[in-house]
Design a protein that fits this description.
alpha/beta; five-stranded mixed sheet; 36% helix
């Protein structure tokens, strides 16, 4: 049986005392937020899967606000061994009441029968779903085939362009502007920054291959209904073609055929000039470095986009809260979700570096106010452009994206052309989906 504890592990975000915590509920809070379903003492367990969510964030963004609103409800975090699967957790005897996850995790939980359809709870407690950002709520609703609603958005995890100002200064290249660049313009910048200086190889940008470019168009890898590969479509061909433009920049392929440059190259080695990435993937680790006394001279710009899609960003990842179908406290769990979606609690999320799930531009003005590493940064660029709704997925998509990565590797290392790489990946994807279906 797993223990439910809140551990003081290495934190990603320093959470400063929040004036919002001592304020009265906002006039803009959900007016239909009612009292708790029960006044008896209740303990709820929360399990986090598939999304970055630190213990400090859990305490500050969920446990503390809920305790203040509902003194009878205590939320604890379920901390299973890192090797434990969701299936093992739900058969352990200690079942979570709430699940924090991304929408891409849903299929696994749905197959297990672990998620509660919250439509009846939405009606029972008059939850005003019109306050949720449509591109988030619609992404959650599109998971089910028959109208079930298996989660409520918690926050929007969006993409921005991180850039290292020191590298730009070193080579006398102007910083990315506050106006959105096209991918062609971003690659032109990258060519000026990809060079060797003093024995150090600097890389201008790594968009992470076709899968990275595909996020700009919200492309599914396989047809959500049939499971057939979609890689031969014109938009997918475009992502492979632009990936080739990226790795063909002279100097991009490094020693020992290195062609993947990620967070460590940006934060620690400081050899990657620009990195398109999720907010949750970078802001916390950058704050952790700051706590260690390591300062990186960086800032943020709008994420680049294809020329015919300017004004849009990338598909936003939905971090959401679901209720376990095995929970004995579903009403209380839904009341917790309702309060977390209030203006009052969403303001705390915004101030601590998470983009709110609700429609309230005033909260966006406070984004990152209590995250030291974001002080002085161009946080307004987080909200430059319209995020895309996460693409509709097939239950096998997470199992077959590896073939897209394999195709990209063949292009980089084996000089395979775009059409051949796509054809090979498509054949492998279709075979794998067929195999997975037979083994169900």
């Amino acid at each position: 049986m797993f223990k439910s504890v809140v551990l003081p592990i290495s934190v990603i975000l320093i959470i400063l005392p929040l004036s919002a915590c001592s304020q009265k509920p906002d006039p803009g809070s959900n007016p239909k937020d009612t009292t708790a379903a029960s006044t008896e003492p209740v303990k709820l367990l929360l399990y986090s899967n598939g999304a970055t969510f630190t213990n400090t964030e859990f305490q500050t963004l969920i446990a503390d606000p809920v305790k203040k609103k509902y003194p009878n409800i205590t939320i604890e975090r379920l901390e299973p061994p890192s090797t434990a699967t969701p299936e093992e957790i739900f058969s352990s005897g200690t079942v979570p009441d709430l699940i924090f996850s991304t929408s891409t995790s849903y299929y696994r939980f749905i197959k297990m029968g672990a998620l509660e359809d919250v439509r009846e709870l939405i009606k029972k407690y008059n939850f005003d779903a019109s306050r949720l950002k449509p591109f988030l709520y619609d992404a959650v609703k599109q998971i089910a085939d028959s109208g079930e609603i298996y989660g409520i958005p918690f926050n929007s995890n969006q993409h921005i362009l991180y850039y290292n100002k020191d590298i730009f200064d070193k080579f006398g290249v102007p910083y990315p502007p506050d106006q959105q660049l096209t991918w062609d313009q971003a690659l032109d910048l990258a060519r000026q920054l990809t060079r060797t200086e003093g024995g150090v190889n600097y890389i201008g940008i790594d968009v992470q291959g076709p899968l990275g470019f595909a996020r700009s168009l919200a492309l599914p890898v396989i047809d959500p209904k049939t499971g057939k590969s979609l890689l031969s479509s014109p938009d997918w061909v475009r992502t492979f073609t632009y990936s080739q433009k990226n790795f063909e920049i002279p100097g991009f392929i490094g020693k020992n055929n290195t062609y993947n440059y990620d967070r460590d190259q940006f934060m620690k080695d400081r050899t990657l000039a620009m990195r398109p990435a999720w907010l949750a993937n970078m802001v916390g680790p950058m704050e952790e470095l700051r706590q260690q006394g390591i300062e990186v001279n960086w800032d943020i710009a709008p994420i680049p986009q294809f020329g015919d899609h300017l004004g849009e960003t990338r598909e936003a990842q939905v971090h959401s809260l679901s209720i376990s179908s095995q929970s004995k406290h579903k009403d209380e769990a839904f009341q917790v979700i309702t309060h977390i979606l209030s203006d009052e609690t969403q303001r705390i999320l915004a101030r601590n570096g998470r983009v709110p799930a609700i429609i309230n531009p005033e909260l966006e003005k406070e984004y990152g106010a209590d995250v030291p590493v974001l002080k002085g940064k161009k946080v307004q660029n987080v909200f430059a452009g319209k995020p895309l709704k996460t693409h509709a997925t097939n239950e096998y998509e997470s199992d077959i994206t590896k073939y897209v990565s394999d195709a990209y590797r063949d292009m980089v290392l084996n000089n395979i052309d775009v059409n051949t790489a796509i054809r090979k990946a498509s054949e492998n994807i279709d075979k794998e989906v067929e195999r997975l279906r037979k083994n169900q």
